[in-house]
Design brief:
Elements (H helix, E strand, L loop, with lengths): L1 E2 L5 E2 L3 H28 L18 H31 L3
Antiparallel strand pairs: 1-2
Helix pairs in contact: 1-2
Length: 93
Amino acid sequence: MQRKPDGSYIQPLVFRVALDLLAVFGIVAAAAMAVVIVRIGSSTPPVSADVPARSRPKVWGPVLYLVSLLAIGCGAAAVLSFVVAVVTVWFPV
């Protein structure tokens, strides 16, 4: 708890910051997972008779891997932000 100049107490701003971080990381994680799901769902490449499949560039391999890591990392950060918010409510300093 923080003491105000008038003598009353207020909850520290850690709770609000933790909730804001939860929202931001949650939105980024959801967007990254949406990209991964859409890309995996549309993984059938267009078939062209004159170009063999092995000669087509594999652009989405590294990008899909990095976006998956981004989704996992932001999801973990959102969970940790939620834990911080819960801990600050249950155990005020």
